Amino acid sequence: MAAIKTREIQYTAQDGSTLIGYFAAPETDVPVAGVIVAPEWWGRNDYTEQRARELAEHGYAALAIDMYGDKKVTTSSDQAYQWMMQTFEDPDTIVNRAKAALDTLAAQDEVNPEKLAAIGFCYGGKVALDLARSNAPLKAVATFHANLSPKAPAQEGQVQAEILVLHGEKDSMVSLDDVASFKEEMQAAKVEHNVIVFENAKHGFSNPLADERAKANGVDLGYNAEAEKQSLAAMYELLARQLA
Fold first, then answer.
1. What's this model's pTM, rounded to 2 decimal places?
2. In sequence order, what are the beta bridge partners of 194?
3. For the segment 89-118, what is each residue's pLDDT rounded down to a tens digit?
């Protein structure tokens, strides 16, 4: 694994919110492909930062992005829901904040701005998908147990990324009907995409803290180590292919 460096980067979204990203990159003099990491509804927490560091160890520059402002985080599902819903009040908030993060990532000296991707977990999956639907210059998007509902359905010619959706069969928050609707949306817009459904995997399957959060908040989450392993492998395969 590559030696890495990390730092926080403050940036401002179009709505004036002050956002603080966590940047990780390999120690190299050559600009590398960049990936934004959109967080679960808990905010830009240790888990999101861990995923950014792992990407850096694999040779990518990564920015764990802040969607709530001032890097707010919580372990309370009630608070997370409140913050998440605030980003839905104006239909442009999610894309504008994600685009500000993508622009910030692309502007870093360590990043090749011609090779950009986005990954997202849970709420962050919606962030990454809506960013892709907005014609952002992304070559790849991978989502883990994502909210798949669009701000507006993808339009033909407006999605530049190849999209990979990693979903749990037993996800009670995003149903298999939702997955079917997403596939129809992608097919109608002629978007290159792939959906992998993991058996016996619940919402939150990629997060080792999912069971703890489920118990504390009374929500239907569950960690699945095998699904985590397989989904990350699929993501890295996509990134290697599209960002080479």
1. 0.98
2. 164
3. 999 999 999 999 999 999 999 999 999 999
pLDDT in tens, 123-169: 999 999 999 999 999 999 999 999 999 989 999 999 999 999 999 99
| 4-243 CATH fold | Rossmann fold (3.40.50)
d(CA 48, CA 40): 8
pLDDT attached to residue 1: 74
88 token code pair: 């839905």
For the record, the structure tokens of 121 come out as 């977990």
Among 204, 198, 239, 244, which Cα is nearest to 223's?
204
Beta sheet of 193-198, edge-to-edge order = 4-12, 18-26, 61-64, 32-38, 111-121, 140-144, 162-168, 193-198
What is the rounded distance in angstroms from the CA atom of residue 10 to the CA atom of residue 228? 30
What is the longest distance spanned by two Cα atoms in the chain?
Answer: 47
Asked if the model's pLDDT at residue 2 lies above 80, the reply is: no
Q: Indicate the domain borders of the chain.
A: 4-243
- Beta carbons within 8 Å of 14's beta carbon, 6+ residues apart: 92, 96, 99, 100
Cβ partners under 8 Å of residue 114, min gap 6: none
| C-alpha–C-alpha distance, residues 75 and 42, integer Å | 6
